[in-house]
Each structure stands twice: as structure tokens, then as C-alpha cells.
Amino acid sequence: MTEPFETPRSSAPQGPRAVPFHCPYCGEENLFPRPDDVGGGWECRACLRAFAVTFLGQVRRPETAS
Ligand SMILES: [Zn+2]
């Protein structure tokens, strides 16, 4: 039999690029992806900074004493 379901994925990013919603420097949402030929990442059209978001790995969920 073939596997009828694809590997379940929620809304996880499909590529190596994580999607920021706010500029980490000025907090604006005026973000645009940088062209790949300049190394990827994002540029903020408000403060004119370019940056990249790097996924460093999963972390352990903190124990909640409830
Ligand atoms: Zn900015």
C-alpha cells in the first residue's frame, strides 16, 4: 500500500527562510524578502536595515507548575 497521507505539516515554514513579522530593529512591518542573489534574508523599508532570521533548533518546553 502507498501512504495515503502526506507528512503532516502545520504552518511550519517550508524553506530555510523563517518569516519575520516585525523588523527586529524598528518594529515596523514593512519587510520585504531580499533577492536570493544577495544572500537572502529580509530588508526593512522603514529603517533600511537588512537582516536574516536563523533557526537555531527546537527548545524544550518549560515545565509549568499548574
Ligand atoms: Zn526596521
Characterization of this structure:
By secondary structure, the chain is mostly beta strands. It has a domain at 16-54. It is 0% helix and 12% strand. It is built from no helices and 3 strands. It has strands spanning 31-33, 42-44, 50-51. It has a 3-stranded antiparallel sheet, with no helix packed on it. The N and C termini lie far apart (45 Å). Mean pLDDT is 80; it is low at 7-14. Residues 23, 25-26, 28, 44, 46-47, 49 line the site of zinc ion (ZN). This is Insertion element protein.
Spell out the blueprint of helices and strands:
Elements: E1 31-33, E2 42-44, E3 50-51
Antiparallel strand pairs: 1-2, 2-3
Bound molecules: zinc ion.
Residues 23, 25-26, 28, 44, 46-47, 49 line the site of zinc ion.
Organism: Nocardioides islandensis
Protein name: Insertion element protein
